Amino acid sequence: MARTLRSDKLLFGATVGLVSISVVMVFSASAATAFAEHSTPAYYFAKQLAWAVIGIALMLTAMRIDYHRYNQAPLIWGLLAVTAVALVAVFGFAERNGTHRWLILGPISLQPSEAAKLAVIFFAAALLERRMHRINEIPYALLPIMIVTGAVAGLILAEPDFGTSAMVITIVAAMLFTAGLSYRYVIGAALLLLPAAMVIVITAAYRMRRILSFLDPWEDAQGSGYQAVQSFIALGSGGLLGRGLMNGVQKLFYLPYAHTDFIFAVVGEELGLIGTTGILICFVVIAWRGLRAALLAPDRYGSLLAVGLTTMVAVQGFINMSVNIGLLPTKGIPLPFVSNGGSSLIVNLVAMGILLNISQQASPVAAAAIEARK
């Protein structure tokens, strides 16, 4: 029987550290924009602080709820149904930046695609826990996951949001691989998805421009390569120690989305390589402790749930940082815990709360084996 352990202090500390950085850096990165748009420099800071307080409270609550309670069909299907309805409902609201991604409820904007990731993780973990002994049988195990994941990813893609849609598929792929999916299916899926992804990119002019600007952003530095170039300038001008907090220049209407998708570049300019390395270390710690929780989980459901939650946070973090430094094409994916945005922050903090609960119930046999290898 699993024993109850103390909370993973490293995982908890890395998470709270990123949220603390977020509150400070969102204010620094957004002050000029907030003043121009809302006549107060603290507009985005106040909202982010409020979401952070709510999110931390929810994380602490999730830490105390046995993760097995999420393995219930009414809860899982109810969450999937609500998120599906919300993903359709976004088309009834006005566009923002050419997309339908938000439910606008007065002063509050909610992004259902963030909750959809959590819903898919619950579903995949529950189904795989029951059927992983026949994981390579398509009708029995793979087809139900493919249908649900494909439906959710398709709704998100229609917004359009290619990045989040790809993240949903990546999360489920990691969980399937952990469950023991045969390599032939992994290779076959890759061979099918790559051409499909190419078609999606080629048929959308703005996506094609992003690919071309990724290959050489300086060729059109005032057009399709503008975001990448401004991010490079911010990171490069920061040096080792940075210009100092609040002293960045690129956030002053040069770098687009300075307090959301490109906040990592602002950190680099103001806090230098030291600041960006600190953020990177926090995500490495989350990945390490999350996978450790999966390894030590007392049952298959906990292990699969931990893999999905860790992938959702860590992989998205690495992708965002890679975009900021030019290793991947520009994509509107926020930096978990750090970028401005309530929906992302709340969902990711709840995910960390669940992951912390899984880590509290580590198997003593697995824990002893790891300690013996040290």
Structural features, described:
With 374 residues, the protein is mainly alpha-helical. It has helices at 9-38, 43-63, 73-89, 112-131, 138-157, 162-178, 183-202, 205-215, 226-238, 263-296, 300-324, 342-360, 364-373, and strands spanning 103-105, 108-110. Helix 1 (9-38) runs antiparallel to helix 2 and helix 4 (112-131) runs antiparallel to helix 5. The chain is built from 13 helices and two strands; from the N terminus they run H-H-H-E-E-H-H-H-H-H-H-H-H-H-H. It is globular. The chain starts with 8 loop residues before the first helix and ends with a helix. The chain has a two-stranded antiparallel sheet.
Task: Give a quick summary of the entry.
By secondary structure, the chain is mainly alpha-helical.
Average pLDDT works out at 89
Strand order of the largest sheet: 1-2
User: How would you sum up the major sheet?
Assistant: 2 strands, antiparallel
How many helices does DSSP assign?
13
Helix content range = 55-70%
Number of strands: 2
Per DSSP, what share of the residues sits in E-state strands of 2 or more residues?
under 5%
Class per helix and strand makeup: mainly alpha
End-to-end Cα distance, whole Å, is 24 Å
Order of helices and strands: HHHEEHHHHHHHHHH
List key phrases describing it:
374 residues; mainly alpha; two-stranded antiparallel sheet; 13 helices; 2% strand; globular
Give the topology, please.
Blueprint: H1 9-38, H2 43-63, H3 73-89, E1 103-105, E2 108-110, H4 112-131, H5 138-157, H6 162-178, H7 183-202, H8 205-215, H9 226-238, H10 263-296, H11 300-324, H12 342-360, H13 364-373
Antiparallel strand pairs: 1-2
Helix pairs in contact: 1-2, 1-10, 1-12, 2-12, 3-4, 4-5, 4-6, 4-11, 4-12, 5-6, 6-11, 9-10, 10-11, 10-12, 11-12
